[in-house]
Amino acid sequence: xxxxxxxxxxxxxxxxxxxxxxxxxxxxxxxxxxxxxxxxxxxxxxxxxxxxxxxxxxxxxxxxxxxxxxxxxxxxxxxxxxxxxxxxxxxxxxxxxxxxxxxxxxxxxxxxxxxxxxxxxxxxxxxxxxxxxxxxxxxxxxxxxxxxxxxxxxxxxxxxxxxxxxxxxxxxxxxxxxxxxxxxxxxxxxxxxxxxxxxxxxxxxxxxxxxxxxxxxxxxxxxxxxxxxxxxxxxxxxxxxxxxxxxxxxxxxxxxxxxxxxxxxxxxxxxxxxxxxx
Amino acid sequence: xxxxxxxxxxxxxxxxxxxxxxxxxxxxxxxxxxxxxxxxxxxxxxxxxxxxxxxxxxxxxxxxxxxxxxxxxxxxxxxxxxxxxxxxxxxxxxxxxxxxxxxxxxxxxxxxxxxxxxxxxxxxxxxxxxxxxxxxxxxxxxxxxxxxxxxxxxxxxxxxxxxxxxxxxxxxxxxxxxxxxxxxxxxxxxxxxxxxxxxxxxxxxxxxxxxxxxxxxxxxxxxxxxxxxxxxxxxxxxxxxxxxxxxxxxxxxxxxxxxxxxxxxxxxxxxxxxxxxxxxxxxxxxxxxxxxxxxxxxx
Lengths: 278, 299
Hints:
The structure holds two protein chains of two kinds. By secondary structure, chain A is an alpha/beta fold. Chain A is built from ten helices and eight strands. Chain A has helices at about 10, 35-45, 60-75, 95-110, 130-145, 170-180, 190-200, 200-210, 235-245, 260-275, and strands at about 20-25, 50, 75-80, 115, 150-155, 185-190, 215-220, 250. In chain A, helix 2 packs parallel to helix 3 (about 60-75), helix 4 packs across helix 5 (about 130-145) and helix 9 (about 235-245) packs across helix 10. By secondary structure, chain B is of the alpha/beta class. Chain B contains ten helices and eight strands. Chain B has helices at about 5-20, 55-60, 80-90, 110-130, 145-165, 190-200, 210-215, 220-230, 255-260, 280-299; strands at about 40-45, 65-70, 95-100, 135, 170-175, 205-210, 230-235, 270. An eight-stranded parallel sheet of chain B has the order 3-2-1-8-7-6-5-4. In chain B, helix 6 links the parallel strand 5 (about 170-175) and strand 6. In chain B, helix 2 runs parallel beside helix 3 (about 80-90), helix 5 packs across helix 6 and helix 9 packs across helix 10. The two termini of chain B are about 25 Å apart.
């Protein structure tokens, strides 16, 4: 220890990291309105919620109600998917720009700090290099379209078992692609469920790419239920995140097997308890 | 392990050694029954090379295991070494459940003479040791083979090897190795291996499901176990990253053990890790075994 380290390091266990907890909403009970799902999150101690493109179908009144609700509960929609157009669709770049720009005011209403994309499908007849170039260009176009909005562009790899058509099937590859871009506006959404299902070796990949990890998604394999139901040792994964000083959102994306609030709360508490023993 | 168990064991061992009886341990013994009906073994290379075969078996037994796995080092033993080794095996009540005859590129038919020689050389000693299972990795890919050609060549080689072993009633397990460990490996995942053994279609050719290698290479451990349990001839255990004992990494072995029990897996569960605390083989192996039994009881 050197003198510049804080005094408590000598005498006390380090505090739990100041992680913010979030949950995707699509995987929670879709029969209940968004507002009620936000209530469940708030009751579980979460300050974030994430959306795919549900927001597209909201009528102005719904949007107003949901925004009022999120303010009342202190929840940011920290991540949304801004565009329907694919990154690999090089003929639709104008549409990509337009959709990102249209999503910016929505993001400001929702408190969104991340725009996420999957890679898009393989390009017929293209080499891997050509596909990676198209995805890279697409990410840069999306980042350029942000202007001065304080939003980070993310690439989310999806495992091959879920969607074999996608050009990027692992965080391992996603990190390599984003690293080559060397653009601070562009990072990776590391979904540990998808990576475990399609690739494995999740901690090694995390260690080597923590600098590019903007958000993590959490669910166990198999089944996509809460941590502890499957083959992943999330306690050790959380410890590793804490040791690596990860400071982004911890976003749950699992199907509850029982009461949503109870499971979300337990998942959050387990993560913090593990981090305290890092 | 708590101190009382340790003393009971070592006193029991000391007392038994003075008696004419050959059984080393009075109680608690390293028996399958004492392990809830489960068979646990240890891959011996994971222990310090400065320890003799006898020293290693002693530690395996002290940790409560009934099995041990070897390479092909026994082929070079002198008659005196054989005598010591067989006496130790008897004294500590250890079954040698698997051995590795050699490394041969299974998709390369031009290497068949070497494969034949390795297996023929390995069989007599294996029989002496009471070992009736050989571990084979597919080893190096042949350049320019398509995946289908590679698969079919390995299927053919395994049928041939199984025939060589048939009269001695030795089965073969195909072990995939992750590409991070060996980038020229021809069978890097159990997904490939299960396809191959199904095509071989012999009850004497199965898959060694090494959860460590599979986790490094591919993940999705339980789903593949559940779907292919009929093809699993042996499992190897270590955590990722680091290849240390379960609990040190990203694999939640509790649920893997529960699934093995639920699927009524009744073959060997072999530990193939180095202890994270260095040379603490006995307490680390003991704890790994006890955790496995506790998990399987919950299934």
